[in-house]
Design a protein that fits this description.
By secondary structure, the protein is an alpha/beta fold. The protein contains ten helices and ten strands. The radius of gyration is 18 Å and the shape is globular.
Length: 295
């Protein structure tokens, strides 16, 4: 199996760095968050490569993938992931996104629904509401007022709990600060604007099964807090309203990176969900082709 490499998705698209390992269905495609990289999925890649095809990419401007600030948006990232599915000929894929990556996999599922068997959103949210242009502009002004470096440091330092571990927190905060300021300053407001313009449509029109794994919430005071097992949030309420068949799992006692802080639990949830998605996708494909599955 190919361990990693650069994929030139088409003449019109930039090279996207990705890591690929393992064989088996359904393929699992992992998409990282803002100012992060494919490395955030190492516990999942190592675990699932024994039984399934796994792919993790670096979005434009992140990790090993170059990027121009003008090209860093949820729309472009979603198109890149959809193009990666086509370039690698992945069918019946389960797309797993974290944080900003939740928006990217929803956009990719809109762009290439025929290749997607399921979607997993790990500690997602909706930040932008109302008029998209206004939402983006307000966020740009907030970043400009504080300075991007201070904005990014505070954003990431508040993603962790005391139990998260100092080494994990420091490594992720310091890596986040390596994202070039022009990219971060352009991308984060665009993500907020995408939330306002597209989040509800993306959830309401998603045809594939959806799993939401939630560990934190940013409360009304703009402070990130851990969730209790029976707690809901405006984000979870939105998911329940627009995608009522969604499976929602709350992980308690961990911060914003549950795939790193509670990898065994995340792996179990993703693995169980992927197995169900594979069976559902096969049945759907059989019915569309006019053939019946064997009893």
């Amino acid at each position: 199996a190919q361990a990693g490499g650069r994929a030139t998705l088409s003449e019109a698209r930039a090279p996207i760095w990705y890591e690929r390992a393992g064989t088996g269905s359904p393929p699992l495609v992992f998409v990282h968050g803002f100012a992060c990289s494919h490395a955030d999925w190492r516990p999942q890649l190592d675990h699932f490569a024994a039984t399934r095809t796994v792919v993790a990419c670096d979005l434009r401007g992140h990790g090993e993938t170059p990027g121009d600030p003008a090209d860093c948006s949820i729309e472009t990232y979603g198109a890149d992931v959809a193009a990666l599915l086509a370039a690698l000929d992945l069918r019946g894929a389960v797309l797993i996104g974290h944080s900003l990556g939740c928006r990217v996999v929803l956009q990719a599922a809109l762009d290439a629904p025929e290749r997607v068997a399921g979607v997993v959103l790990i500690d997602g949210s909706r930040i932008g509401m109302g008029d998209p242009e206004t939402a983006g502009r307000v966020m740009r002004e907030q970043i400009r007022a504080t300075g991007y470096g201070a904005f990014a440091r505070r954003l990431f330092e508040e993603m962790f709990l005391p139990s998260s571990g100092v080494m994990l927190k420091n490594s992720i905060v310091e890596r986040a600060l390596e994202l070039p300021a022009p990219i971060g300053t352009a991308l984060f407001p665009r993500m907020v604007a995408w939330d306002a313009a597209n989040m509800e449509r993306a959830l309401a029109t998603l045809s594939a099964p959806l799993l939401v794994v939630q560990s934190t919430n940013v409360n009304a005071q703009r402070v990130r807090v851990a969730l209790s097992a029976d707690e809901s949030t405006p984000w979870l309420d939105l998911v329940r309203r627009l995608a009522p068949n969604t499976r929602i799992e709350i992980l308690t006692g961990v911060g914003h990176f549950p795939q790193l802080e509670a990898p065994e639990e995340v792996n179990r949830l993703v693995g169980d969900f992927a197995s169900v998605c594979a069976a559902t996708f096969m049945l759907g494909s059989a019915s569309q082709s006019g053939s019946a599955p064997l009893a």
